[in-house]
Design a protein that fits this description.
- The complex is a heterodimer.
- By secondary structure, chain A is an alpha/beta fold.
- Helix content of chain A is about 65%, strand content about 5%.
- Among the domains of chain A are: about 160 residues, P-loop containing nucleotide triphosphate hydrolases (Rossmann fold, 3-Layer(aba) Sandwich); about 70 residues; about 190 residues, no CATH class; about 35 residues.
- In chain A, the strands form 2 sheets. Chain A has a 6-stranded mixed beta sheet with strand order 2-3-1-4-5-7, sandwiched between helices.
- In chain A, strand 4, helix 3 and strand 5 form a beta-alpha-beta unit.
- The radius of gyration of chain A is 31 Å and the shape is elongated.
- Chain B is of the alpha+beta class.
- Chain B has a single domain, classed as Roll (SH3 type barrels), CATH 2.30.30.
- Chain B has a 5-stranded antiparallel beta sheet.
- Chain B is globular and about 30 Å long.
- Classes of the chains: A alpha/beta, B alpha+beta.
- At the A-B interface, helix 3, helix 11, helix 12, helix 17 and strand 9 of A face helix 1, strand 2, strand 3 and strand 4 of B.
Amino acid sequence: MKKIKVAMVGQPNVGKSSIINSISDARLHVGNFAGVTVEKKEVLIKRGDKEIDIVDLPGIYSLNAYTPEEQVAKRYLIEEDYDILVNVVDANVLQRNLIFTMQLLDMGKKMILVVNMIDELEKAGGKIDDKRLSELLGIPVVLASAKEKRGVENIVEKILELYDAPKPKRKIYYNEKIEYEIEKLKKILLKSPHFHDPELARFYVIRLLEKDEDIYKIVHDLPIFLELHEVLGESIKRLKLEFDEDSVSDILADERNSLAKSIVMQSMIMPQKETLTDRIDKILIHPVFGLPIFLFFMWTLFQLTFQVGSIPMEYIDQVFTNFGDWLKNILPQGDLNSVITEGVVPAVGAIVMFLPNILILFLGINLLEQTGYMARAAFLLDGFLKKFGLQGKAFIPLVSGFGCTVPAYMAARTLKNPKDRLITMLVLGFMNCSARLPVYVLLIAAFFPAHNAGNVLFVIYIGGALLGLLVAKILRELLFKGEPEPFVMEMPPYRFPSLKALAMELWIKAKIFIKKAGTFIAAAAMIVWFLSSYPKNPELLAEYEARIEAAVSESQKKALYNELAAKELESSYLGKIGKFIEPVFEPLGFDWRLSVATISGLAAKEVIVSTLATLYAVGEADETSSTLRAKLAQSVDFKTAVALIVIIMIYSPCVAAMSTFYAEIPQWAWRGFYTVYPNVLAWLAAFTVYKILEFVGL
Amino acid sequence: MKSVLDMKISETARIKRITAQEPVKGRLTAMGIAKGNLIKLLDHTLKKQTWEVEVEGTRVALRKEEAASIMVEEI
């Protein structure tokens, strides 16, 4: 089977991932802001006897790559081998996108132009003449809309056609003075035995004129380098003089801009002034009301997360309890029965209960992403974030951190400056991820009045965010002196979110969550169960059995059963581990059970809930405290519970997040710092809070 | 010379020169903020720290420092 390699490239937020999703059945994550895709992704599709391998590259504004994720795209374009370039552009901002298209045309590859979001342009009264555009550019043009699935099959057809056809002739040339210098330099480059392709030579020459260091490195080792270098210097000098500009890239930028302008003029009817975005922006980024509106949105999100999310909880709990009881009866008695019905089922149940909360939170974050409000929030918060040594764009990874810390670490790649990026990543853990949500919901429900639950949750999230900012400020002052990077960010137009895409994202999220609960968390629960049930202590059992036998009243018997269960747990492996680490947590009022639960949270934050469920499952006989919530309220005091919340807000994220950080940040010193400091900070903060609460007499 | 900072909200002007250094200059150019294009000031935040402009159909958010580097002439 023939394999066609296609590279999908374009400026950020033109819908590359959406196009791929609508061609294939892939489910790439999409959003309405620059920098959703930060790593290249591959999708395979089959048509007839041919296989098309499409690589989705992160959005890139120009070949003068600026941010790390743009560097990923650029390196791929220059170094990798592929058959066809598919350049996706946004019909609404065709002119700006075409500037980059010109740079791509310099590469001299087989190329297709896909004009996406044509539906939006046409709705606004605009029009693009694809035949004319194709003539002017000298490459095939497809008008498409990923949203309406329009023209997507056409893209595939064009890819297949172009693959078999010879390379079309170049149509775009620059000013003749520039072309003259290009021609001269090209001849020198082609003298080298490594160069046969005049198109590639032309591309290299243009990049060299623009002082592209990546290309400079490639030609540096060629034997003709000295000669080339000398003539290149002269050419640059001459061009700068003739055009009266500071650099050749300025001259070429100007050229490309004029070319794009004239092409657009000849092939496009501009839409009437679109004002919906203007009108919405008048309110949402209003100098005075913008910030309060933003805070109101966030507050509403957390209210909904708590209030609506708690409605189906009891039903889910009931289902798992019934399922456990049913299993208990049909499975043979013994250890297997116990580990499943007492260890795994309640643990998984305790976590699946929180699925509705998590889905609501994710829906909120997805709405922020897809409508384009994310960029507005970054705009509103830039001045505020700058005070803390961060920049507006850091808002995007920070908000993603409320969903999950792992993709948030990846999203930090949209920050160009390594210092900014590191600071942002070091404080990202303080943005409470959705895995911590179950723990908070459980603790809030157990220790705070119901009418205040949503507010407490809001305070926890805002508190975490503020703490993150404070730490960022301290890091900036102490360790990373210097100004944060300049802030230049595109503001996408508001778009109505695609309901299908939203539903799909939620479905994927639910699937991942349930899978995690059923595998990783079930396994962790099993380990916790074993550690808490072994070693068996026959002497203890014998002693208590005798005492229970001798007891006179029912209530006395019950009390003895509970005492036995508690003693057995204490003498288990887990009890021993807990006792060992207890001194560390003792000043916070934690007993060994809370200590163990806290440590188990390093595997995954939800595990804290399942561990608590196992450890506090003792004393089942007391029917007034049938739920974990009530048991916690009974055996843990208020200030300890608050200290636990503070610890969970601050200490290290789960192992998955930590390994992502290690993968993104290669320096060992920073890895070490990252591993230690949140835990120290968490302990100190929890201790302070505990003492304050003790002082005021709570 | 007049820069974006001197523009009024909703005013449109033509870009004459960009005084920012690379790589910011290249970034601005890639967003369409280039010599000869029309630029419209849409909004700024309360303390004039962050500015929003529109160039050839693209909205761009900038900081004060970057906005000050965009020189314009009235049309």
